[in-house]
Amino acid sequence: MFGVNDGLVSNTSLAMGFAGSGASASVILFAGLAGLLAGALSMAAGEYVSMRSQREAHQHEITLEEQELRDDPEAEELALIYRAKVLDAEEAERVATTIIKDRGVALDTMAREELGLDPDELGSPWSAALSSLGAFAAGAVVVVLPYLFSLGRAALIAAIVLASLALFAIGAVIGLLNGRGGLRSGIRQLLIGGGAALLVYVIGRGVGTLTGVQLGGR
Questions:
Q1: In 10 A of CB 121, how many CB atoms?
Q2: What burial class does residue 161 get, using C-beta atoms within 10 Å of its C-beta: 0-12 exposed, 13-18 middle, 19+ buried?
Q3: Under DSSP, is residue 96 helix (H, G, I), strand (E, B) or coil?
Q4: d(Cα 78, Cα 68) in Å, to the nearest integer?
Q5: Which of 12, 24, 81, 199 is the most buried (most CB within 10 A)?
Q6: Distance (Å, whole) CA 12 – CA 121
């Protein structure tokens, strides 16, 4: 939802900035498509690098733990972990000694108990990248759609209506997921996202007026 919201707010603001400057519908369309592609690919690349770095860091921690188990396969550290889980000393020692006999099980246990990691669930960089790309694009495409089917003021009005409805819907869903009122959260999101788009529209209009530039005509 947050990825969708990012795409919606950023691309709506971009499109409104061009609209305010007096750009033609075709220019706004291409600007919106460029914003969609640039933002979605940027989000995907950033998420891939972030997840890849996180995965490599976790794998490094697990490798260090594996080396430690190979060089010093004592059960004492594992026993201390189980004692911290309210097992008595004798029971903790027995469980740890049993686990340490199987190096694979011992590594898996230490990764989970000491590092707080699941070796089988370190996250997929590609999955994270694709989900970020899809979420951003789903939000960014909202303001672009009217310009695919209409021109001029009709497209602008339709884009504003669609973006407003989407902002309210996203805010309402996030509010419900957080246990808050959907109406209040929807209105808040509409005011914040709409305010950002309106501000960029005003700036675009001011720049267009000062420079006297009309992009592509109407």
A1: 7
A2: exposed
A3: helix
A4: 12
A5: 12
A6: 36
Q: Rounded to an integer, what distance in angstroms lies between the CA atom of residue 48 and that of residue 53?
A: 8
Domain locations in the chain as residue ranges:
2-51+124-211, 55-113
Give the pair of three-digit tokens for residue 187. 């209105």
Q: What local confidence, expressed as pLDDT, does residue 153 receive?
A: 85
Task: Return the structure tokens found at 119.
Answer: 């070796």
Q: How far is CA 5 from the centre of its chain?
A: 9
How many residues in the chain? Answer: 218
Cα(113)–Cα(108) distance, integer angstroms: 9
Longest alpha-carbon distance in the chain:
84
Residue ranges in the chain whose pLDDT is less than 70: 69-80, 82-87, 101-102, 113-114, 119-120, 212-218
pTM over 0.85: no
The dihedral built from the CA positions of residue 44, 47, 51 and 57, taken in this order, carries a sign that is: positive
The answer to whether 35 touches 11, Cβ cutoff 8 Å, is yes
- What are the tens digits of pLDDT across the range 142-193? 999 999 988 778 999 999 999 999 999 999 998 888 888 788 899 999 999 9
Q: What per-residue confidence (pLDDT) applies to 181? A: 79
Interatomic CA distance for residues 23 and 218, integer angstroms = 7
Q: For residues 11 and 210, give the distance between their C-alpha atoms in angstroms, rounded to a whole number.
A: 24
Neighbours of 210 (CB within 10 A): 8
